[in-house]
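Can't paste images in this forum, so I'm doing it all in text. The chain is below; anyone willing to post the predicted structure tokens underneath?
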Amino acid sequence: MIRLRIAMAVLLLGLLGAAYFYVALHWSYSSGERAGWIQKLSDKGWVCKTWEGELALVSMPGTANVEKFAFTVADDKVAAEIVKLMGKRVSLHYEEKVGLPSSCFGETRHFVTAVTVSSEISLSPGVVVPATVPAPMPGAAASR
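Text version of the structure:
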């Protein structure tokens, strides 16, 4: 009878632990978008491999006071998309996960789920500039 109670208690604790991990991994505290330039992305971890990166949050490259947004990518397909778009202004969609018990799931609370190329840079309300430099027109280069 005591062994059965101990087994039931262990089973109940295991189920509660599994439920906690499920909720922590599938529920997000917040979600949003951040735009900027990817500064780095690396595959890190001894046992639990995740992609860790930094996004420079500046309106134009070369401006001072660069704020950095640290993020984690758990999906290898999303990480491959980010690698393809390095050097371009991008918008990262992220979900903030709160309550993960260790850094094994990622070093940050911000998990990127999608990436898109930003076509415009907003300088102020109503003022935007293209994010890409237009290609030179044929014949515009001076010949020597």
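DSSP finds two helices and seven strands in the chain. The first strand starts at residue 30 and ends at 44.
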